[in-house]
Amino acid sequence: MKPVIALVGRPNVGKSTLFNRLTRTRDAIVADFPGLTRDRQYGDGRLGDRPYTVVDTGGIGESEEGIDRPMTDQALQAVGEADVVLFLVDGRAGLTAADEQVASELRKLPKPVYLAVNKTDGLDPDTALADFYGLGLTELFPIAAAHGRGVRGMITEVLKAFPEADEDDGEPADPDTVRVAVLGRPNVGKSTLINRILGEERVVVFDQAGTTRDTIEVPFVRQDRNGDGERNYVLIDTAGIRRRGKVHETIEKFSVIKALQAVDAAQVVMVVIDARDGITDQDLHLLGYVLETGRALVIAVNKWDGLEADHRQWVKRELERRLHFAPWVKVHFISALHGTGVGDLFGFIERAWDSAFIKLGSNALTRMLQDITHSHPPPRAGRFRAKLRYAHLGGSNPPTVVIHGNRTESLPNSYQRYLENKFRELLKIEGSPIRLELKSGDNPYEGRKTQLTERQIKRKRRMMKHVKK
């Protein structure tokens, strides 16, 4: 098994910067102010042939009020799961009371704890470490996470205590893993829904819009809907996306960018809507973005419990009215707080994933195309009618049907929509868009002028004389 390394410390000591350095990614958002990281973030790194897992956590030790309390709980969970703890302190700020408080708790742990004195670039190492020897931690490393100085030597020492990695470590991900991004406006209950699905407080939930900032990926295993096996999932919690005109802070802009990138990395997107507000213009913008990417889509209308019957009917009418452009989208009504309807979501998710990655041979698709065009031929365009000859699958997520024929560019949009709907009906595609790609065969005689023989020229002259008479 890969060793798990938890990064802990008070706010703004450089944990997220070190996380990005160790994983060689930019998964953790970094900014020069405290309290940015709130949820625990997992990432994989490698030193030569030695893989490891790093856990980034929120700052602890300075406050136990408000949102700091659940942030501390997340950090403590990461410490409990880890094989080794890297305790980060700020070498420029020196030793603080919060550092001493955290160190006193870490010394009680029955696992290795290493002290990383960060931000020591430009400082004498002995001077930077002098204040921190009093914490009682024998393994001290002066590092500069932003520039990478001392990081490799530190992680080499940390990994020495662990056996060589198994050959199975670092295996490629299961291609049948279902990646589900949870998207929505701020404070609609995305994190609450993920915690309800997982059955634990995996991400921070607080009654404050914009609690989630990083994009958090959580892998888990669940029994499939047929009950005859297990299926791997990755839930991706994203930051709430407000209207562009209301996004002013730089950090929120980065959070929105990461949320939209999560949509591209997902296979199924679950858009969460607040039932109290109904479907808003911002919800429609998010739905439109998901449809543009071609991802399978499920809508979860949250906070459904406790609503009056009239309000429920109004929400359903609004959904039907405003989702006319995507009537195939499945809408499910849930209460993430109480768990009502949450378990049924996975039936929609699995059907949407199966539809997005449908497999079908060219012969079957061509027969479907012939049946469709026989019952309702393409309309004429001038003197000619488009001929659709054969079809095959050209891609997945979304499933793309490539149709070859002649004069396909003359097909009107209405007939293309008819083809999409018929293919959706015959292929039983649920919860996923479907795209058509029309290709016309090249005319081998295009641009070539016919050369007449001498006999043909004479015959043409005789006929023209006859016509003139």
Can you offer a commentary on this structure?
It is a single chain. The chain has 469 residues and is an alpha/beta fold. 33% of the residues lie in helices and 22% in strands. A 6-stranded mixed sheet has the order 2-3-1-4-5-6, with helices on both faces. Strands 8-9-7-10-11-12 form a 6-stranded mixed sheet, sandwiched between helices. Helix 9 (309-322) links the parallel strand 11 (296-302) and strand 12. The longest helix is centred in the middle third of the chain and has 16 residues, at 250-265. The radius of gyration is 30 Å and the shape is elongated. The mean pLDDT is 83.
| Structural classification | alpha/beta
What would the CATH topology of the largest domain be? Rossmann fold
Main beta-sheet annotation: 6 strands, mixed
Low-confidence stretches: none
Number of helices: 13
Query: Beta-sheet strand percentage?
Result: 15-25%
Extended strand count = 17
Number of domains: 3
Mean pLDDT: 83
Q: Gap between N and C termini, in Å?
A: 98 Å
Q: What is the CATH-assigned architecture of the largest domain?
A: 3-Layer(aba) Sandwich
Helical residues, percent:
25-40%
User: What is the CATH top level name of the largest domain?
Assistant: Alpha Beta
Order of helices and strands: EHEEHEHEHEHEHEEHEHEHEHHEEEEHEH
Strand order of the largest sheet: 2-3-1-4-5-6
The CATH homologous superfamily of the largest domain is named P-loop containing nucleotide triphosphate hydrolases
Function: GTPase that plays an essential role in the late steps of ribosome biogenesis.
Keywords: GTP-binding, Nucleotide-binding, Repeat, Ribosome biogenesis
Protein name: GTPase Der
Family: Belongs to the TRAFAC class TrmE-Era-EngA-EngB-Septin-like GTPase superfamily. EngA (Der) GTPase family.
